[in-house]
Design brief:
Strand content: over 45%
Structural class: mainly beta
Shape: globular
Largest sheet: 22 strands, antiparallel, barrel
C-alpha cells in the first residue's frame, strides 16, 4: 500500500513537470474577508491532487492586497485556500481550463469548519513578535536555493541588486541556524545562501524583537534545518573588486565546509589602495582682524590591507553546541601632502608632509550553548577577545618635525545569558558579564634623525585600565496580536586609579567610576487579521562611552594651521530615544525623537598659537526628530525600492554655540532581470540639507547611479559593474565654520571615476543526504520506513 502511494505521488509530480503535449494554465484571484471586504494577506493557496491531498504540488501565499497567482499544467487538481480563523475554500480545476483562469474575488468566512480530510498547513504564521514561514510546506524548496526562496518570507526582501535585507534597507540583521550563531551564515552571506539547497531546511522565522543574547540587531532570522536531511559538501567563494573612485583593487576568498554536525569557515583577503589626487583649499579670518589666512593643499594616499580568519561550529549533541572564531587584520597606510599656506598678499610657505601608520588587530571568541531539555530554555556562555596595536610615524620638512605614536587597546569579555519561556505567554531573559578594557597611547616629537628615529623630546602618555560589570533582566509578555517587553540594563565601571595622563605641561588622573541604569520598554501590536500591519513603539535610555581614537593623545600636525587632536577628558553620553514604527501592506513608516545629554562630537577653537584646532568634546545637548518611509515591490523580474525621509536636529555645543540642521533624503532604485541572467538597474537619489549656526556642510544634492550584473556558468560566476554617479566626474565638499574666535571656509575637490567592477566566482556546492536511521540493525533505503 505504501509503495502504491509513493508511485502515485511520483506519477503526479512527473505529470506536472514533464508531461508532453499539455499547456500551462495561470490561476489567479483575490482573497478577502467576507464581512469586511478587506484583503487577507498571506493566506495559503495549495494545489493538490485527489486523493493525495496532504501532498502539495504547488503552493503560494497571497500578497498584502490578498492577490495570488499560480502557474500549473492543465489537468485535474484541487485548489485549497486556507487562512487561520476562516473556513477553507476548495475549488476543482479541470483539463478544459483556459490558459488564464481568473477566480475573481474569493470571500472567506469566519468560524472555521473541518472540511473532511481537507487540511493544509499554512505557509505563513504571523504573531506580534515573529513571522514563521514553513519551508516544508513549500514544494519549491525541492529545487530552489535558500537565497531564491527567502524573499517569499514576509519582511525579507531582495534589493534591485539581488542582496537580501530585512524590514527596510539600512536595518541590521543576522541569520542564525537552529537558534544558534553559526559560521554557515557568516562571511559572504548572499553567496553562501545561493549555494545552500532549500530542501535542507524546514522553516524560516523572522524575530521582530530578538533575544538579548544575539546582540543589538534590529532583526534576527532563524533558519531551522530539516531533521530528515543532513548538509554536506564544500563551497569556495572568490571575489575580486576594483573601485576606481577610491583607487582600491583586491580580492577576498572564503571556504565553507559542512560535515553535517561540523561546519568550518576560512577567510582571507588583500586590498591595495592608491587614491586619486585631491585638492583642498581653506580660508580663515580671526574675529577683529582684517587679514585672511589662505591654504592650498594636495593629497595622495596609498596602502594595503590583509586579513585572515577561521571559524567553526560544532553540534556536540542534540542539546550542546560550540562556536568559535579567530580573525587577524593588518593595515599599512602612507599619506603624502603638499601644502602652501600664508596670509593673503604675502609669501606662501611650502610644506611637505608624510604620514605612515601600521595597525595590527586580533580578535577571537568562543560560544557555548546548552538547550535545556525539551523546555526551550537556553543557556549561553561566551568569551571574547579583541586587541589593537597602531604605530604611526609623521614627518614634515618645515623645521624637520618628527612624531612617533603608539596606540594600544585590548578588550576581554566574559558573558552569560539565560532564556526561559516561563509560560505560554511569558518569557524571561537575564544575563551578565565582565568586561576588561586597556588603553595606552604614547606620543614623542622632536627633530628628525636618520632612519626615521626621533630624539627624546616632548612626550605625552595616556594609560587606562577599566573594569566593567554588567547585567540585564528582560520580561516579555506576548499574545497572538500583542506583546510588551520591559528590560533593565545596568553596568558598573571601576577604573581603579583612573585614566593617567602625562602631557608636557601637566600630569593628572581622570576617574569615571559609577553605576549606569538603562531601562527599555517596547510594545508590538499586530493590526486586524485582514491586513498585515504592525505597530511598534519603543523607549530606551543608553549610555555610550567614547571610542579610543577620540581619547588618544595623538596630534595630527600634517597641516600646521589645522591641527587634529584627541581629548582624554571625554565623558560618556546619555541617549534617550523614542521610536514609532508601523507597516501597512508594503509601506514601512518610522518616526522618532532622540535627546542626547553630554553628546560626544567635534568642535573647533583657536589655541594660543592661533592655530585652528579640531578636537572632541561633550556637547551641552542635542535634540533630534526623524521620520522615514520605505516601499518595496517585486514583480516578474522587476524589483523596486523607494525611500523618503527627513530629519531635524538642534544642538547646543560646548562653547554655547547653537546649530539647527534640516535634511531630506529620497531615493528610488529599480532593477529588471532578463532571462534570469542579466540584471540592469539604477538609483536616483536626492540628499539635501540646510544648516545654520556653528557649522555647515554642503555636498551635491542629486545623484544617479547605474549598475549591471551578468551571470555565467549556471549562475556560479557573476560579473557586476556599478557606476556610482553619472551626474558628475568630480566630487566637491564645502564646510563652513562660524566659531566664537574665527570664521572658516574649507573646500575639498577630487577628480574621480566612481566605477566599481566586481567578479564573484562560486566553486563547489552543498549536497543533501537523508539522515540514516537504523531499525532492527537494518538500513532500509537510507531512510526510516514505518
Amino acid at each position: 500500500m505504501k509503495w502504491g502511494i509513493w508511485f502515485c505521488l511520483l506519477s503526479c509530480q512527473w505529470t506536472l513537470l514533464c508531461a508532453q503535449g499539455q499547456v500551462w494554465t495561470t490561476v489567479r484571484g483575490r482573497i478577502v474577508d467576507d464581512a469586511t471586504n478587506e484583503p487577507l494577506a498571506y493566506a495559503t493557496i495549495a494545489l493538490v491532487k485527489f486523493p493525495l491531498i496532504e501532498d502539495i504540488l504547488k503552493g503560494v501565499v497571497t500578497d498584502e492586497e490578498g492577490k495570488f497567482e499560480l502557474k500549473t499544467l492543465q489537468g485535474e487538481y484541487t485548489l485549497i485556500i486556507r487562512n487561520l480563523g476562516y473556513r477553507n475554500y476548495v475549488y476543482e480545476l479541470t483539463p478544459e481550463m483556459p490558459k488564464v483562469k481568473d477566480l475573481g474575488i474569493i470571500r472567506l468566512k469566519l468560524q472555521p469548519e473541518q472540511l473532511g480530510m481537507v487540511t493544509v498547513k499554512p505557509l505563513v504564521e504571523i504573531s506580534a513578535d515573529e513571522i514563521k514561514y514553513d519551508l516544508s510546506a513549500d514544494p519549491d524548496r525541492e529545487t530552489a536555493s535558500l537565497h531564491s526562496i527567502l524573499d517569499k518570507v514576509p519582511m525579507i526582501h531582495r534589493n534591485p541588486m539581488g542582496n537580501i535585507y530585512v524590514g527596510e534597507l539600512g536595518k541590521t540583521f543576522m541569520i542564525v541556524r537552529n537558534g544558534k550563531v553559526d559560521v554557515l551564515f557568516s562571511g559572504n552571506l548572499n553567496d553562501i545562501l545561493k549555494a545552500l539547497p532549500a530542501k535542507g531546511f524546514s522553516s524560516v522565522t523572522v524575530m521582530l524583537a530578538p533575544p538579548e543574547r544575539y546582540g543589538e540587531y534590529d532583526y534576527v532570522v532563524n533558519i531551522e534545518t530539516d531533521k530528515n536531511n543532513r548538509l554536506y559538501g564544500a563551497v569556495g567563494i572568490v571575489k575580486g573588486k576594483e573601485e576606481m573612485g577610491s583607487g582600491t583593487v583586491g580580492a577576498n576568498t572564503e571556504i565553507v565546509v559542512s560535515l553535517d554536525k561540523l561546519r568550518l569557515s576560512s577567510y582571507g583577503s588583500f586590498f591595495n589602495t592608491n587614491t586619486p589626487l585631491s585638492e583642498q583649499s581653506l580660508y580663515k579670518q580671526v574675529m577683529g582682524e582684517t587679514r585672511i589666512f589662505l591654504q592650498q593643499q594636495k593629497n595622495e594616499a596609498s596602502g594595503e590591507k590583509w586579513n585572515a580568519g577561521e571559524g567553526f561550529s560544532y553540534d556536540l549533541s542534540k542539546q550542546h553546541f560550540l562556536n568559535g572564531w579567530i580573525l587577524y587584520k593588518k593595515e599599512d597606510h602612507r599619506d603624502k601632502s603638499l601644502l602652501n599656506s600664508g596670509y593673503q598678499d604675502e609669501i606662501m610657505t611650502v610644506t611637505n608632509f608624510v604620514k605612515r601608520n601600521s595597525t595590527q588587530s586580533f580578535e577571537g571568541g568562543i560560544n557555548y550553548q546548552y538547550d535545556i531539555g525539551e523546555t526551550k530554555q537556553v543557556l549561553n556562555i561566551a568569551y571574547l577577545l579583541k586587541s589593537f596595536l597602531t604605530d604611526r610615524w609623521d614627518q614634515g620638512n618645515q623645521s624637520l618635525l618628527c612624531k612617533q605614536t603608539k596606540d594600544e587597546q585590548q578588550e576581554q569579555a566574559f558573558q552569560i545569558h539565560y532564556y526561559n519561556p516561563l509560560h505560554r505567554y511569558w518569557k524571561l531573559e537575564l544575563g551578565g558579564g565582565y568586561l576588561y578594557r586597556y588603553y595606552f597611547s604614547e606620543n614623542a616629537d622632536e627633530l628628525c634623525k636618520p632612519n626615521y628615529e626621533v630624539s627624546s623630546g616632548n612626550r605625552s602618555l595616556m594609560e587606562a585600565h577599566k573594569h566593567i560589570a554588567n547585567a540585564y533582566l528582560r520580561i516579555n509578555y506576548s499574545r497572538k496580536k500583542f506583546s510588551v517587553r520591559i528590560e533593565l540594563k545596568t553596568d558598573y565601571l571601576n577604573d581603579g586609579k583612573g585614566t593617567e595622563i602625562k602631557l608636557p605641561d601637566r600630569e593628572e588622573k581622570i576617574s569615571e567610576t559609577g553605576l549606569n541604569l538603562m531601562p527599555k520598554i517596547g510594545l508590538n501590536w499586530l493590526f486586524p487579521k485582514s491586513i498585515f500591519s504592525r505597530l511598534n513603539v519603543e523607549y530606551s535610555l543608553k549610555h555610550s562611552r567614547p571610542p579610543f581614537r577620540m581619547l588618544s593623545t595623538y596630534e595630527d600636525l600634517s597641516n600646521g594651521d589645522y591641527v587634529l587632536i584627541g581629548n582624554p577628558d571625554l565623558r560618556s553620553q546619555k541617549e534617550h530615544t523614542v521610536r514609532f514604527g508601523t507597516s501597512i501592506k508594503k509601506i514601512l513608516l518610522n518616526a522618532g525623537w532622540s535627546y542626547y545629554g553630554d553628546k560626544i562630537g567635534g568642535y573647533w577653537y583657536l589655541d594660543e598659537k592661533e592655530r585652528t584646532v579640531y578636537t572632541y568634546g561633550n556637547y551641552g545637548y542635542v535634540s533630534q526628530y526623524f521620520i522615514s518611509s520605505n516601499y518595496s515591490y517585486v514583480g516578474k523580474g522587476f524589483n523596486l525600492n523607494a525611500m523618503l525621509g527627513g530629519n531635524y536636529r538642534h544642538s547646543k555645543l560646548i562653547q554655547k554655540e547653537k546649530q539647527d540642521e534640516y535634511s531630506i533624503n529620497a531615493s528610488c532604485s529599480a532593477g529588471y532581470i532578463f532571462r534570469n541572467r542579466l540584471n540592469l538597474g539604477g538609483t536616483l537619489g536626492y540628499n539635501d540639507q540646510f544648516q545654520s549656526g556653528y557649522s555647515a556642510t554642503q555636498m551635491p544634492a542629486w545623484s544617479l547611479s547605474v549598475w549591471g550584473e551578468m551571470k555565467f556558468f549556471k549562475e556560479r560566476v557573476e560579473l557586476q559593474v556599478n557606476y556610482a554617479d553619472l551626474l558628475r566626474f568630480s566630487r566637491e565638499t564645502r564646510q563652513q565654520v562660524n566659531a566664537i574666535d574665527f570664521v572658516m571656509d574649507q573646500r575639498i575637490k577630487q577628480n574621480y571615476i566612481p566605477l566599481t567592477v566586481t567578479l564573484n566566482w562560486r566553486i563547489g556546492s552543498f549536497k543533501i543526504k537523508p539522515v540514516r536511521n537504523i531499525r532492527k540493525s537494518v538500513i532500509i533505503d537510507d531512510t526510516l520506513q514505518e
